[in-house]
Amino acid sequence: MRFFHVADVHLGMEPDLGCPWSKRRQEEIWDSFRRLIDRVRTEKPQVLLIAGDLFHRQPLLRELKEVSALFASVPDTQVILMAGNHDYLKKGSYYLSFTWPENVTGLFGQSCERVDLPRHSLAVYGCSYYSREITENLYGQARPSGAMKYHILLAHGGDDRHSPWKKEEMAAAGFDYIACGHIHKPEILIPDRMAYAGALEPTTLNQTGEHGYIDGTLDGRGVRISFVPFAVCEYVELTLQIDEDTTQFSLEQALAAQMERRGPENIYRVTLEGLRCENLEFSKRRLKETGNVVEITDRTRPAYRLEQLKREYAGSLIGAYAEYFEGADRRVEQKALYYGLEALLNARQE
Amino acid sequence: MRLKKLSLGNFGRFRGETLELKDGINVVYGENESGKSTVHTFIRSMLFGMKRGRGRAAGNDVYSRYEPWENSSWYQGRIEFVSGGKEFRLTRNFAGKEKSEELVCLSDGEVLSVEDGDLSVLLGGISENVYENTVSVGQLKARTGEALALELRNYMANYQGSSDGSLNVEAALLSLRKKRKELEQEIERRQKAGEEEKQQLYSRLSYVEQDCRETEEKLERAVAERKYEMFDKEIPPREVRRQQQRFLNKRRWGIACAVVAVFLALLCVMQFFRVSSLFNRLALGAAVFALIFIIYRMVRHTREDDPEIEEPEQQKIRKMNWNVEYLEKEARQKQIQCQNLREEYEEFCAGLTIPQEEQENVEAVTLAMETIEKISRQQQSRVGIRLRQSVSAILSELTDGKYRQISMDDDLNIGLHSEEYYVPLERTSRGTMEQVYFALRMAVMDILCSEEEMPVLLDETFAMYDEYRLERALTWLAKNQRQVVIFTCQKREEQTLERLGIPYHKVDLSE
After folding, report:
1. Do residues B255 and B113 both lie within one domain?
2. Is residue B344 one of the residues assigned to a domain?
3. How far is CA B249 from CA B46, B204, B297, B303, B475, in A?
């Protein structure tokens, strides 16, 4: 029996609100989900597990209709879904009143319930969120039961405010596989036993690295899972080394070249490091306009040689100033040192 | 420290030149372009090494300027000096790769290490910056009286605040203040952008909320109307009677039907027993007639009834039901949309924080300003009073007691006090200002080089002095300084020294 395990699709979300690519990303998230269903259609896994947060917020009727039509287009695959902390089952949620196609089962109970799929000799366990936060482990009592041969638990959460759990305890419950959602970074918690599929598409700037879904097989020999990269976009951390010859223009060029190489569709978090030419400051605004740059952190400092300055100016204000910040390693003090030195050295009339 | 011998191995225009210097006053005479400033730079480079500019600045740095004209890989010099009663020899090679230095004590043959700071100890710990502010004395650069006064004022202020005559602390603070303002404006700009985004979200939210409310109101109205239609609207008695009548009618016709049927069945029985055929025929005729009548009545009745199966009231209620149902769906959808948007708005507001890095930069600039002010105040209280006393004493000697005191107020205005009157610095002659400058430099030397007495290098310092002032200055120098090197392109210093009978050593660069 083959299954796909996805989570945290966050349909409807507008990532990086206020950035020029925000709307584009909103559409890409929908597109990726449609592509995923296409993939299901061609690869024909028997089961598609959706471990919560299919929607970013409460789904609208038309959105559910869209999703439902997509599910209906892969009738041979049994879809099992649940509501996570983002699309939790609020009073009046369409999840509850919606009529799903035959191949879709919602685990919409408040506590763990079991769904048997005799065709695959599989039992899937899980429940849904009824509030944004749940501070006790929803899955603490869940144990495999019934006549089915295989048992999969669909679990959403894992941090302090969303069904906190210990992975060892969860794994000890005896399920063949625990398909986890909520944490957006894909992570195999226990090899071939328990994993976060991660968000299908990354949604915020700290979700660097690859995103996709988990492709698994469950048979007499046990479970084998592998992560499949699927997202069209990645948040990439770029560190640019600055030296004294770097100018605004050359930096923009270097950044543009890097982004071109790593994929212009990606979104970049840029860190500038190294020693910059004295009296030069880089324009963050211009750098941001070079491409999809969501964040710029400037860790450069002017290329003053501190020891030399201290020696050269010992006994006068500049020396005393450099001395004053000796051993100060708070970032703000380091910055103050260089701001001050720059101002003082510029204020010397040669 | 006293300089004894300068050997310019290969430095600038000099090759294998050796200059001997003695204690007391030395006059280095040379016409313009004869290399006086090269000697100056040589001494400084020997004592403090030569720092290379980097990047684009390298093209015009000291290193390049004095790179030997010929054979530039050999770029070196040697000086001999006395410090703490011992003689030392310092050799340096400046050339890029072979850069090296060697410090030997000639008195006891000990080899010392420049890198480990031995030379620095011999120099009494003074830094290159202090050296420039003390040992090496040039001329005031400004030409007009007013600018001169200003320059002097700045010098004095700078010395007091930073022990560095060319560092204008106020200018540094001003540039930092400007910097902080820029950073704050950037933060403001960012916040404004966030605020605009928030406003946009808010107007979207209020539009959707309004829409949602309207739908809800419509729904409420529709529900109320339906309720009125169903329960509250009184159906008139006539209509009630009519409806009852219709019901009774239907029943009556049903009974009539049954009666005819029974009658027909009876006829059939009678036919079976062959009862009188006339009676039989009559009865059959009556039955047939009755049947036709009943059917006619029933058909007519049904036709009458037909439009009344759906009465207008009921139809209206049904329509209302549809409407309510539709509005309910609409309202629910809109409510969810509305909630979602409200959540988004709230999340956005919660995420609207001051950009951290920028905030940190503002803090850093503020810290820089505070620290500079603090250190400057410390320096001022340490140096300021001593400096003024010292300057006053020297000035008094230079002017033969004419000006006894110098003062500086909070606005940095310098004034000179004679026994009887006070003159603001701006109103004194250029010569006096030069004297004040000289006194200032000498005083600073006293304060900043307290550990090891350094030679005084005077570079055309007396060019603008008149005879009298020159005499006073030279007399003061002969009396107060152990080693003085006067760089000049004129013969006046020599002549004056001779006239005053002050012994001096002459070095002629033009030879």
Report:
1. no
2. yes
3. 134, 63, 10, 14, 149
**Min distance A298 CA to chain B CA atoms (Å):** 9
**Model confidence over A9-62: pLDDT tens digits?**
999 999 988 889 999 999 999 999 999 999 999 999 999 999 999 999 999 989
pLDDT of residue B243: 67
Residue with tokens 């439902």: A68
- Which B positions 167-186 lie with beta carbon below 8 A of chain A? 167-169, 171-173, 175-176, 179
Structural domain span for residue B274: 180-351
Compute how many other C-beta atoms are within 10 angstroms of the C-beta atom of residue A218: 24
Of B127, B335, B343, the CB nearest to A314: B127
Question: Dihedrals φ, ψ of A208, to 5°?
Answer: -80, 165
Residue B373 lies in a domain: no
Task: Let me know whether B112 and B257 are in one domain.
Answer: no
Asked whether this complex has an ipTM greater than 0.85, the answer is: no
A317 → closest Cβ in B163, B357, B363: B163
Neighbours of A62 (CB within 10 A): 10
Same domain, B199 and B300: yes
Segments in chain B below pLDDT 70? 52-60, 70-73, 141-145, 231-241, 243-244, 247, 274-276, 301-313, 410, 412, 511
Q: Are B264 and B207 within one domain?
A: yes
Contact status, residue A178 vs residue A223, Cβ threshold 8 Å? no
Asked, for residue B152, whether it belongs to a domain, the answer is no
Contact A64, A138 (CB under 8 A): no
Determine whether the interchain pair A349/B54 forms a contact, defined as Cβ–Cβ distance below 8 Å.
no
Separation of alpha carbons A270 and A287, rounded Å: 9
Same domain? For B121 and B197 the reply is no
List the single best residue of A55, A296, A316, A334 to mutate versus B (max B Cβ within 10 A): A316
Residue environment code for A228-245, b if the CB has 16+ CB neighbours within 10 A, otherwise e: bebbebbbbebebebebe
The CATH number of A2-229, from 3.60.21.10, 3.20.20.140, 3.30.390.50, 3.40.50.300, is: 3.60.21.10
Shared domain for B202 and B103, answered yes or no, is: no
List, for residues B382-420, the tens digit of each pLDDT value: 777 788 888 899 999 988 888 888 887 767 678 888 888
